[in-house]
Write a structure and sequence with these properties.
The protein has helices at 6-23, 57-67, 97-110, 179-184, 189-192, 232-243, and strands at 27-35, 44-51, 71-78, 81-87, 92-93, 117-122, 125-133, 136-142, 147-148, 164-167, 171-175, 199-205, 211-217, 222-225, 247-252, 258-265, 268-284. It is α+β, with helices and mostly antiparallel strands. The chain has 2 domains: 26-142 and 274-284, Diaminopimelate Epimerase, Chain A, domain 1; 147-265, Diaminopimelate Epimerase, Chain A, domain 1. It has an 8-stranded mixed beta barrel with strand order 1-2-3-4-6-7-8-17. The protein is globular and about 60 Å long. 39% of the residues are buried.
Length: 285
Amino acid sequence: MATVNFQSFALTCGSLWQARQTLTTMELILYQVDAFSDKPFGGNPAAVCVLDEWLSDELMQNIAAEMNLSETAFCVKNEDKYHLRWFTPKAEVDMCGHATLATGHIYFTELNYKQESISFETKSGPLQVAKISAGQYKLSLPTDEVMVVFYEDGLDKLNIEYESVFEGKDDYLMILKNETEVIKTRPDFKAIGKLDKRGVIITAKGDNSDFVSRCFYPAYGIDEDPVTGSAHTLLTPYWSRRLSKNDLHAKQLSDRGGEMTCQLKGERVNISASAITIIKGSLYL
């Protein structure tokens, strides 16, 4: 039987590690957060990378592709403002709710942020995350405008049996008959990817909630998003008008699933939800 000199083995590993560190030009700390969930493996996972200064767009896109999550958030503090950007595995997006929630969570739990709320400067304007209690937050996003769609070529080819369809700035919103129809829908992702919008949201009145939804974004590398904060800036105004109430209990019916409380308050949608960190590690470049 062969024997191992553990002292020599340890020295060799140490030398390899030192050599690796010598070749490394940059180390980035990355966090993975399950947003819209109070337990691991629920909600929607997002990666969060807090930077001293911006990386190139190409490098941030490559990192997002490497992480292969629905979004990777990059944040830079410039003087007294926090600037936030989000990348899917394929492209940068203008709005992401769950990765904003995840970034706020990291500031509160990992970066010694002392105030009760944090505001991020983004392409969609200022977005706020306020701490309610440990792991529980209120996310404030601008509302999206719900507009009627009378006809749009291609919407009848998605394998979605909808009763009516609306649109917002980024997405089509399809109203289905009931929660069962939302659950059993198997859309044509290839056809959705050819539309002139970010993607499609399907929704119906919930059996045990005010409304339920599912969200599809194949053009951005995400066939079905687990839980989508930005989609609720369109869903909340629609269901608020239809149900004549401003406080709504919402469920997103993906495999991972997520729940949130949505409040329509003027031109903002406030979303109360949980977040939990599940991974912290280093990326060497």
